[in-house]
Amino acid sequence: MRKCFYIFACIALLLSGCSSKRQEGKADPGSAGKSKNLIVVGLSQVGSESDWRLENTRSYRETFTEENGYYLIFEDAQQKQENQVKAIRDFILQEVDYIVLDAIAETGWDEALMEAKEAGIPVILSDRSVKVEDEGLYTSWIGSDFKKQGKRAAKWLLDYLEKQGRSEEQIKIVTLQGTLDSTAQLGRSEGFLQVMDKQENWIMLDQAPGEFVQAKAKEVMEYFLKTYPDIDVVICQNDNMAFGAMEAMKESGRSYGKYGDIILISFDATKAALEAVEKGEINADFECNPQLGPLVDETIKKLEAGQEAPKIQYVDEGYYE
After folding, report:
1. Is residue 321 within 8 Å of 284, Cβ to Cβ?
2. CA 149/CA 187 separation, integer angstroms
3. Reduced to 3 states, what is the DSSP secondary structure of residue 63?
4. What integer pLDDT is reported at residue 255 of this predicted model?
5. pLDDT digits over 20-43, tens only?
6. Radius of gyration of the chain from Cα atoms?
7. pTM higher than 0.90 for the full model?
8. Distance between first and last Cα of the chain
């Protein structure tokens, strides 16, 4: 009987220890940073769907280090908005000092951001913006002028066609869109269409989401090629989708780029894509600067000093052809 009691007592002790460790582990990220007198930042990232996203994450990790006075809690949402909402609430429970949100979609944030505001935690939006009833729910937005990128791409195409002596031709276009309702997708689409609407000879044959992912974009491009045999221009709203489109065009025997029949325009200007520009495979690539970490750092330091941060901050960008 004593032996049984001893065994049960040991099991209970072990379970108690495990439970204690789990509770400590859950609370540890925020408290660990605060115990070292570091600024605790909770970052909810969209995912790792593209080369741009990986470089963007690297920028944050290299910025929010202990050497720079930070403790970073990183959450990968894996392309799911519900994961980001959960991450925000977890950050609140861990009493982080700042929340950095790269929002998957623009809508659906009012409740979670209100909870952060009520907890007294400033929210900084990075890369993608949000649409909320009260803009006071977030402190600042830092990222690219996506609408300007779209306009710039359309104006580049206008000039390019003029140089090619094709200004009066009927130009048939397809667009591989990014994740629908994301800031990049909405801005790039709107900017391009604002210029396109003034060109009576430009026709948008079709638009479909490739989700910023190479494999999905290849599927979409295969459909476009089968459905529309006379495509003149392919717009890809990021480089990974351009790579997917290139795969589909190669396999179908279609030529593209500077020396081909189809004009290929992309966005992001990642290293691999710029190599494709050099080879003539991509006609033009419009930069989307992923190095947002330093600007977020500057914003936090202003807030720490009791200063007001700009509500909107754009990064400098160009294009390559």
Report:
1. yes
2. 8
3. helix
4. 97
5. 322 333 445 666 666 678 999 999
6. 24
7. no
8. 83
